[in-house]
Amino acid sequence: MSVSSDLQATLDPSRRSWVEAANDPACDFSIQNLPFGIFSDSHDAVWRVGVAIGDRIVDLAVLEEAGLLVLPPTSANESGASSVFRSDSLNAFIALGRDAWRSVRIQLSSLLARDTVTLRDDAALRERALVPATDATLHLPVQIPGYTDFYSSKEHATNVGSMFRDPKNALLPNWSEMPIGYNGRASSVVVSGTPVRRPNGQLKLPDVERPVFGACRKLDIELETGFIVGRGNALGEPVACAEAEAHIFGMVLLNDWSARDIQQWEYVPLGPFNAKTFATTISPWIVTLDALEPFRVAQPEQVPQPLDYLRHDGAHAFDIALEVRLRPQRAREATTISRTNFRHMYWTMAQQFAHHTVSGCNTRVGDLMGSGTISGPTADSYGSLLELTWNGKQPLELKEGGTRTFIEDGDELTLAGWCQGEGYRVGFGTCSGVIVPARD
Amino acid sequence: MSVSSDLQATLDPSRRSWVEAANDPACDFSIQNLPFGIFSDSHDAVWRVGVAIGDRIVDLAVLEEAGLLVLPPTSANESGASSVFRSDSLNAFIALGRDAWRSVRIQLSSLLARDTVTLRDDAALRERALVPATDATLHLPVQIPGYTDFYSSKEHATNVGSMFRDPKNALLPNWSEMPIGYNGRASSVVVSGTPVRRPNGQLKLPDVERPVFGACRKLDIELETGFIVGRGNALGEPVACAEAEAHIFGMVLLNDWSARDIQQWEYVPLGPFNAKTFATTISPWIVTLDALEPFRVAQPEQVPQPLDYLRHDGAHAFDIALEVRLRPQRAREATTISRTNFRHMYWTMAQQFAHHTVSGCNTRVGDLMGSGTISGPTADSYGSLLELTWNGKQPLELKEGGTRTFIEDGDELTLAGWCQGEGYRVGFGTCSGVIVPARD
């Protein structure tokens, strides 16, 4: 990736902000991060575009109106002026294109840098432009035209194959040849914090001939990340693997809630449906691919070497530490039940996007593409309770609240993720949901 | 379904129109039909809402502006005035709700009836309000937030199971318990007439260890219908089977183009993906459920009796004759390669919708739900080339253009469907696409 020196400067590990909380080495929202989201607050119920910095959210519309933030003119935005920041989704902003994303990043990084006085020393404007995060409500950041979920962790696919198919041939032959994916349900993608109702559905009990109808008994998480498409492709026009990253706006944390009992009964031959469509939770902040650049690492070796259309030179994985935490209803403390890293993923986001479009399938701005469950190589790094408890056979001991095989009503499940820089973090915040009981 | 006497009158088989072409007993667009679509024409490139009648398209915006068509005030449309007819999709109109759909149907049926002089005898207005269909371009009628495809023909599921799994246990145990479905790709749903590019992808040849990349060699159709959601449901709020039809706006013809070789290699365990995502074609006219009411028939007996949440009293199938025609590139004449009927479908649309939402999954206005391939009980009534040629083993003889196992470049595939009333038809028109060669 060729980046301008201005863009490079936004990644400078030594840059600090006059928003002091951003300089805490454990703060997800350093000045190197600058993730985009949609928020409202107690003073203004209108949904609008914000950028997280420390314990504040920058209101981009206020900065634009004050003349401190200027959008470059583009074909989608001829005048340079815009209402893309007073919008209930990021789609219009994202549609302006990568030059606009980068320009905003560069301007914000400069405005928020410790020695830039413009905003820092304008108390009245600062008050309006920087909303305390504690006073804000975060909303779904994008209107999602299409949601695709991949299945790209070798460890996860192997674990699931061992449990449900054949331990000796756990990995199906097609898995090593392509990033297996399927269409998800976009309508039920919700933002972190939205309660998730335990689904009802058909359950096939081993000792009963016919299925019974009832509440899911094996409710699970899937620890995933997702990427948001920033530039679509037209129908019939595939995107080459080497070009694919230029189509990605940024990444989120994603919890692909899964009803394992419903899934096991329904999924042959057309794949998971009701087991997944009841909810998918994403984090409210989209961390741009630009902010992740310093954390680029080599993907695992791919054997056999992929077919030509799935090849790309260089490093296309990202070093993102990931955790899953479970907090029972009345517990004060959550237990971290898994620690893993996005870098373990076998197939890269670029390969996923190239594979998705190779048939000619079109994509659109705002499309969400999930990584698939991210399981690491060790038993404490698996990305689902299914794997962590080996389908319920090995209960997890919680610090507080007993043991768990699968999720119980009232449990709060939280995903967290961050890239650890030298003295700063580029973090995703959290992605959480509390399970409410099934309908009668 | 309780219908008012005015609505009942729109179904009167003896009603005739002053648009003479509508009175041809073989015309799809009788006055009993009145399907909705989106069109533009050589005089006005703006996309807008139209209703087909005989060889004309009624421009609803013109009628509304002339005061001949009045929308009832609704919560979505407080003033009664609207711009829903000057819109590039039907979504805003559909969102007004069933009372509005029915009111428009009743008013149009009356306006177009043979003895109603208002529009008939106003030459100037008639000229503006009735566009010759030959002068019009038809567009995708709805903006589709989500596309789901079911698999509800017992004959189709049995045929596919016989070919690819086990002829002795062709039907999987879950099939008889639920309308199996999966999420499709909404972005690549195109309107009839859109050329379809043969997809490239991974093909696993029987005599080669690894897959090869190339153009699909087993390109197929799937003869389906689809229904358009007219009223969505909120997340976590399932719709009971008995209430489900009230959520359906109408039906279309749907061709679920399928790359069989790509599908066979990719589909285990998460279902079809690239084999289907390159294109799905729907017909431009949405025939309302109200217009289909006289053609309601009993669904096939369901054994075992479905679980409670999938039960509904009464008749929930529809008698819709269906055909597939294939015309090679330079042939003048098409060959009808399949004749079947929607009434054969084992699972009803109401059951599909109830099953889709039973987990709590939400739906939205404009969602498209495909029936699954509609295969009848006899070998000439199968809804795919896969079945008609038994995976290529029994080539079809065409009237003109040789034989076919699967689709060749330049072939035009056309679906047609209609309900045959006494002296009139309620038809869907056609749903067609020409295959263009794969990209190099």
UniProtKB/TrEMBL annotation, chains A, B:
InterPro entries: Fumarylacetoacetase, Fumarylacetoacetase-like_C, Fumarylacetoacetase_C_sf, Fumarylacetoacetase_N, Fumarylacetoacetase_N_sf
Protein EC: 3.7.1.2
Cross-referenced Pfam families: FAA_hydrolase, FAA_hydrolase_N
Gene Ontology BP terms: homogentisate catabolic process; L-phenylalanine catabolic process; L-tyrosine catabolic process
Pathway assigned to this chain's UniProt record: Amino-acid degradation; L-phenylalanine degradation; acetoacetate and fumarate from L-phenylalanine: step 6/6
Stretches assigned to the Fumarylacetoacetase N-terminal domain: 32-141
Record-annotated Fumarylacetoacetase-like C-terminal domain positions: 147-417
Annotated keywords: Calcium, Hydrolase, Magnesium, Metal-binding, Phenylalanine catabolism, Tyrosine catabolism
Family: Belongs to the FAH family.
Protein name (Swiss-Prot/TrEMBL): fumarylacetoacetase
Taxonomic source organism: Paraburkholderia megapolitana
